Amino acid sequence: METVSDMIAGFLAGLTPGTRAQYRSVVSRWLRWCADNGIDMLRAKRTHIEVFAAYDGGMRPAAKNTVCRNLSVVCCLYRYLCEEGYIDCDPGEHVRRPKLYGHSDGTYLTREQARLFLDEARGMGARTDALCSLLLLTGARVGEALGLDVEDCHLNDGRPWVRFDRKGDWSQRVAIPSEAAEALARLIGGRRRGAVFREDSGARLRQQTAVGIVSSVALRVGVPDISPHSLRRTFCTLSRDAGVPDRDIMAAGGWNSPQMLDYYDMSRRGLNGKAGDGLQDYLGKED
């Protein structure tokens, strides 16, 4: 008979390395929470899952995004256990999930700030230039950019393109603009294989280092709190302003629905939109 550890190992085995690490962390906290509260995890109820997720295994209420992440992981685990016949009933099937906002309140760059950001990055070395150009001009996730190998970059094929390993364990060839292609070419130089973005030691660039690079460039142009994901949000919002069709934006950034573009774009439009001014002017006019 398989042990709980064997079941968990089977659940995690089919996941990509990055997803596996995230899921393992949540599952470990879930198992610890069950043990601390005298709950047999194979007999857990929906309420147990909801309480664990709502408090992230602790005493204080968790943020909505954390709650949703915890619910998603634990419910995936129980769906797997049910499908494999380890349990008779899936306790996660009908868990109640919090409603998330329909827009993102995260940071982004304006058009002028984006210009300054790219100009500043260009003068800070090949690695900084290539990373910032690629993230801002393609909308790639930071993990996708850092996962690039030299063999994934085809920069001399007339229309330069790279192959990203996308979230969800699929790969996609994406055309990149000339500025990003030239920056990548300068960084790669004569190398024929290995990671595109590297630490000074030669190891693949860590996400923490990439975050620091982006943040340092943004601070030099006077824009705090800019992260790699801010550049992805910027790519979406400014591409829409430029009149790029949503389908092309979705393809470049690896989004699977226009609702995700709305999610990134709505907060910015709410703050910068002209609806109120337009109505005010309209009401002030005489027929």
Q: How would you characterize the overall build of this protein?
A:
With 287 residues, the chain is mostly helical. It has two domains: 4-83, no CATH class; 111-272, hpI Integrase, Chain A (Orthogonal Bundle). Helices cover 56% and strands 5% of the residues. The chain is built from 13 helices and three strands. The chain has helices spanning 4-13, 17-36, 46-55, 64-83, 111-122, 126-138, 142-146, 178-188, 207-220, 228-241, 246-253, 258-272, 275-284; strands at residues 153-154, 161-166, 170-175. It has a three-stranded antiparallel β-sheet, with no helix packed on it. Helix 5 packs antiparallel against helix 6 (126-138) and helix 6 (126-138) runs antiparallel to helix 8. The longest helix has 20 residues, at 17-36. The chain is globular. It starts with a helix and ends with a helix. This is Site-specific tyrosine recombinase XerD. It comes from Bifidobacterium adolescentis. Residues 104-277 form the Tyr recombinase domain. Keywords: DNA recombination, DNA-binding.
Topology:
Elements: H1 4-13, H2 17-36, H3 46-55, H4 64-83, H5 111-122, H6 126-138, H7 142-146, E1 153-154, E2 161-166, E3 170-175, H8 178-188, H9 207-220, H10 228-241, H11 246-253, H12 258-272, H13 275-284
Antiparallel strand pairs: 1-2, 2-3
Strand content: under 5%
Please write the string of helix (H) and strand (E) elements: HHHHHHHEEEHHHHHH
Largest sheet features? 3 strands, antiparallel
Number of DSSP E strands: 3
Global geometry:
globular
The CATH superfamily name of the largest domain is Intergrase catalytic core
CATH topology of the largest domain: hpI Integrase, Chain A
What CATH first level of the largest domain would be assigned? Mainly Alpha
Q: How big is the Rg? A: 23 Å
